[in-house]
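Narrative summary of target 7.
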Amino acid sequence: MSLISKLSSHEILDPFLSLVSKCPVFNTPTDWKETPEAHIFIADLPGLKKEDVKVEIDEGRVLQISGERNNVEDDDQNNKWHRVERCRGKFLRRFRLPENAKTDEIKAYMENGVLTVTVPKQEEKKPERKVVPIQAN
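Modeled conformation, tokenized:
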């Protein structure tokens, strides 16, 4: 028998997909990239509108992205669902921001189910060069 066991005539158990459907972290994939100017977070939130999502700063330096995917309303009792694989319910992602993050200048933008959060970085202060005079005895 293979790793993928057949449960019924219409469904095959895939251990990886079972894990993904139960784990909210996998259901809200988020990329974090750093540019010279900012930290950029890109989260896939298909089917959600900006009103369904909250972006917050918690504890001073923790970026929190949360929201809820609502259940599909189906008023027709004659319909028969064969599969329900899309995740429903609440989700929450948290990222500890580095010290150079300007948390008071964060911007968020959502288009086509993709949330982009831009966290500007403070300019690095380059150490000043100081000439120390050499004294004679």
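The chain has a mean pLDDT of 81.
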